[in-house]
Amino acid sequence: SKYSLLVFIISVFDSSFSSQAIAALMKTLKIVPTYDGREDAAIWIERFRECADTLNENKSVMLPLALTGEASVVFRGFNEETRRDFEKSAAALTEAFAPSPRLSWATFASRRLVTGESVDVFMAELKQSVVVICSNGQDQNAFIAQAFVNGLPETKMRNMEAETLGKAPDLETLVRLARVHVTAGCEPLKETAAAARPINRLQ
């Protein structure tokens, strides 16, 4: 496999890799998410970063092993300095595979809570997606809050709006309230909930 070949190459050129280290690396590679360039790089890189940090792995070593397809080809085209520095590689991949701003916004604004999805996962994905369209932390939270409420089933959205009227709850509070409202009555979740309600972009 690709992973086996890359690990073999590393072991040949880096004598510090013991058989135990190679075995541990192979096990780690089965856990780390791979990237082929088809999804937004910024979102994938955050998942990769969290996974590598949790496993206490060297991100610069792990990154090329996690890339496949077009992403691997693009990475190999970076200069040596960029390839050896995870942050530089991450920035270069993000730039190379960044979706257009219009597409990013449309994807974020149209996201809806779907059948069987927890409100916690819904909120987490909105948080990951918003970094592509907005770099200001305060504006990010405003976008996320509006998209989160708009993405709930219609009746749940109305209940949430009524309960938070005149207030400015933080994202954790919104998730807590949504758990209560979405669970109440056990109504089916609809992908098209509140689809007609636009999200106002902050200037």
Element order: H for helix, E for strand: HHHHHHHHHHHH
Structural class: mainly alpha
* Beta-strand residue percentage: under 5%
| Shape field | elongated
Q: What is the residue-mean pLDDT, rounded to a whole number?
A: 76
Low-confidence stretches: 1-13, 186-203
How many helices? The count is 12
What about the largest sheet? none
Helix content: 55-70%
The count of DSSP E runs of length 2 or more, i.e. the number of strands, is 0
**End-to-end gap:** 48 Å
User: What Rg is obtained from the alpha carbons, in whole angstroms?
Assistant: 21 Å
Concise structural overview:
The protein is mainly α and 203 residues long. It has helices at 2-13, 19-29, 41-55, 59-66, 69-76, 80-84, 86-96, 101-109, 119-130, 137-150, 154-163, 171-183. Residues 1-13 and 186-203 have low confidence and may be disordered.
Q: Any overview of this molecule?
A:
The structure is a single chain. With about 200 residues, this protein is mainly alpha-helical. Helix content is about 65%, strand content about 0%. It starts with a helix and ends in a 20-residue tail after the last helix. The model is unreliable at about 1-15 and about 185-203 (pLDDT under 50).
Notable traits:
disordered N terminus; 203 residues; 12 helices; mainly alpha
Chain-wise SSE layout:
Layout: H1 2-13, H2 19-29, H3 41-55, H4 59-66, H5 69-76, H6 80-84, H7 86-96, H8 101-109, H9 119-130, H10 137-150, H11 154-163, H12 171-183
